[in-house]
Amino acid sequence: NQLKKYDCLPELIEEIPNQSSLIIGHAYGRATFRRYSNSVSPYVNNFIKKNKTKIKTLFFTGDVFNFPTSKKWQNIFDNYKKDIEILIIPGNHDVGHNNDNPRRNIFNNEVSKYQSIDFPYLIKRSGFNIILDDSTVGNSIFDSNNDFLNKFATTEKKLLVLRHHILIEEMQKNSGKTLIYFNKKVIKNKFKSFEDVSFISGNGGQRKKNDRVACLKHDKFTHILNGIGDVKNDNVLVLHNGNIYRYEINNF
Asked: What is the CA radius of gyration of the chain?
């Protein structure tokens, strides 16, 4: 019933379409359950295994592990890469809050074997122009000059930005800790050349009291927050043919 208070939520679907891209935030689950786990949440893992023939690309939007190691990063790619393209958007648990710490070094060494870590950068999947953004340090799209956006603003009018941390303080009640918020005017000015921009953040849902997915819309901007908390009705987000959906993994 809590979900009804958000009028900008993606449509709920009951089946994953073939050739979909999935977005999963806070994949290690609830910290009190899985503080020292060697893998993502078993509910996430089971869901991926059941649907791997339908998933083309899987985006993890941060906090994949609570305490990452080289072996854990190797395992997640070894487990899935044969069937699914894996792309990691880093969270603070994955890389810390700065560029000079062991977690960042491990992430750079291991994840760079499978994908670019030169954030932010643009890719195209499932009918979307998608920016992969590192919200943890000075590597974010909000830290870069406008040249990055200007080079494709004339041809691409819709954007999907994937990051870990939320952008606006109004969504804090459902999110983990965020160090920097952005004024809506700043967001509007940064993306003024685009007609429709959606931000998906993966730092939500980890506490039982949180909504499984939340959203807020202003002007031409939609902010969607989700994440795994090992709770019934945990949501993952689904991209297919230019549309965003949500799906309840219902592993309990």
From this structure: 17
Contact indicator for 63, 25 with CB cutoff of 8 Å: yes
Instruction: Tell me the one-letter amino acid at 79.
Output: N
Alpha carbons within 13 angstroms on the beta-carbon side of residue 105 total: 3
The encoded tokens of residue 204 equal 């939500």
Cα atoms in the 13 Å half-sphere on the side-chain side of 103: 18
Q: What is the spatial distance between Cα 58 and Cα 47, in angstroms, rounded to a whole number?
A: 12
- Cα gap 83→53, rounded to integer Å: 7
* Residue 215, φ and ψ in degrees, nearest 5: -155, 160
Q: What is the DSSP string of 158-193?
A: EEEEEESS-SSGGGGGGB---S----HHHHHHHTTT
211-234 pLDDT per residue, tens = 889 999 999 999 999 999 888 889
For the chain, the residue count is 252
Q: Three-class SS of residue 124? A: strand
State pTM to two decimals. Answer: 0.94
pLDDT(4) > 70:
no
The separation between the first and the last C-alpha atoms of the chain, rounded to the nearest angstrom, is 19
Q: What percent of the chain has pLDDT over 90?
A: 69
pLDDT at 244 over 80: yes
> How far is it between the farthest Cα atoms of the chain?
47
Of the candidates 239, 232, 241, 242, the one whose C-alpha atom is nearest the C-alpha of residue 30 is: 232
